[in-house]
Amino acid sequence: MKLMPIMIGFLFCSDIRVEVECVIQSEDYYPHIGKGSIVVLLRYPTTKEQIRAIAWEIRNAGNRKRYNPFFISYYLPGMEVGAGSYASSHFRPELEVMIYESALENNPPEEDSSRADELFGQAKQEGTTYTVHSGG
């Protein structure tokens, strides 16, 4: 399975630019029912607006638009996949974005920032990087 790092830029006001990095860790597609599912690793916690932008970027890449419903689960470094995601976005067909703060207690991310950087860096070593620029 190929990991695909994605870097996405966001503009929140005219002179501030925020970039959010994420890595696609896994992709599962079920053509017979039209469903797609992706697991994404985020480096840092993000806002709903950032999750929304990431979701659209991922959804619009490749042939993913043909899958409906389309689910994306977001984890932070050190969180166990499948034990509760930090956030999720669902296209059914409209986009819904949820952030689950309680997941940080039940499935805590790595607290040591250098170890979290290391885990994220390991995930980024494979795949293709995408960058979206907005203002700034």
Short summary:
This protein is α/β, with parallel strands linked by helices.
List key phrases describing it.
3 helices, about 40% strand, about 140 residues, alpha/beta, globular, disordered C terminus
Q: Can you put this structure into words, describing what you see?
A:
The radius of gyration is 15 Å and the shape is globular. The chain has helices at residues 48-60, 103-106, 113-124, and strands spanning 4-13, 16-30, 35-42, 70-75, 87-91, 95-99, 130-132. The model is unreliable at 9-16 and 128-136 (pLDDT under 50). A hairpin with a 4-residue loop joins β2 (16-30) and β3. The protein starts with a strand and ends with a strand. The longest helix has 13 residues, at 48-60. The protein has 136 residues and is of the alpha/beta class. A seven-stranded mixed sheet has the order 6-5-4-3-2-1-7, sandwiched between helices.
Shape: globular
Structural class: alpha/beta
- Rg over CA atoms: 15 Å
Mean pLDDT: 81
**Proportion in helices:** 10-25%
* Low-pLDDT ranges: 9-16, 128-136
Numbering strands along the chain, what is their spatial order in the largest sheet?
Answer: 6-5-4-3-2-1-7
Order of helices and strands: EEEHEEEHHE
Separate helix tally: 3
The tally of strands reads: 7
Subunit organisation of the chains:
single chain
